[in-house]
Amino acid sequence: MAEFVLYNAPQSTCSQRVRYTLNAKGAPFEEVKLDLFAGDQLKPDYLAINPNGVVPTLLHDGRPVIDSAVIMEYLDEIDHAVPLVPDDPVERARMRAMIRYIDEVPTPAVRVPSYNLAFLPHFQAMSEAEFQALCDSKPLRREFLMKMGRTGFPKAEMDEALGRLDRAVTRMAEWLDQSGGPWLMGERLTLADIAIMPVIVRMADIDLETSWADKPAVARWFDALRQTPAFATTYYFGALLTEKYPHLAERRVARAMSAR
Ligand SMILES: N[C@@H](CCC(=O)N[C@@H](CS)C(=O)NCC(=O)O)C(=O)O
To answer: What is the pTM of this model?
Structure first.
């Protein structure tokens, strides 16, 4: 068995954080791709290593480490060769507070448009009883799925999520303003950049990049991130929703045409 085995899914935002961290550290890992719609994350063997029934899970020498934010910090703790946290403890605490904010505000918010735009048809194809059984099988996301139902999150919920995303982008612009860039904490790319990365990538993927149209610092940050070598290896083909769901790619083209 490889030293690092990552159980994850190509399009999962939480998985993307860990893939990026491993790639940025240059740590080779064996990638096990789970099919979240086939329910691989809810099988007994997987629940034995991650009782929350979600990806990612990292096995380090066979021992499980779960939760993307925890895994990122764990990887940094065991490998100091490529530091991804500030040296100063107070700055490290500030970075952790940024990650908590990211996990509290934009990370849950981006699920709402993601589910409504990309994943809903999958649930609509089920019978009511099948859908309820699926909700009941989810250790973390039962109520979230039930709120979405088979008609999708209502407009009020979508608007609330989009508002939270906009506020998080504004907060990001403030962080960049304070740090002077290129990264959220200044010269060193840290776990805070990696924590917010999948939210920004997902927003761009589902046509929400207008959120930072008037925030050039965020656009510059995103350009710089896309140029890091770890970005391409993390976002291999199939990691974006528009690469998997043709209806989303068509929606983008239609939007671009109508904006002409
Ligand atoms: N706090 C957890 C959340 C993990 C999570 O929500 N993973 C999603 C994909 S990004 C998942 O596995 N969903 C499967 C499901 O809902 O059944 C983390 O950051 O690792």
So the answer is: 0.96
> In order of start, what are the domains of the chain with their CATH numbers?
4-78 (3.40.30.10), 89-258 (1.20.1050.10)
Torsion, Cα 122 138 198 212, to 10 degrees, reads: 70
For residues 230 and 23, give the distance between their C-alpha atoms in angstroms, rounded to a whole number.
5
Ligand 1 centroid – CA 186 distance (Å)? 29
- Is 242 within 8 Å of 201 (Cβ atoms)? no
Query: What is the tens place of the pLDDT at every residue in 32-47?
Result: 999 999 999 999 999 9
From start to end of 34-177, where are the E strands?
Answer: 57-60, 63-66
Pick the atom of ligand 1 nearest to 111's CA. 10
Query: How far does the centroid of ligand 1 lie from the alpha carbon of residue 134, in Å?
Result: 15
Distance 236 CA to ligand 1 centre (A): 19
Q: What is the pLDDT of residues 55-86, one digit of tens each?
A: 999 999 999 999 999 999 999 999 989 999 99
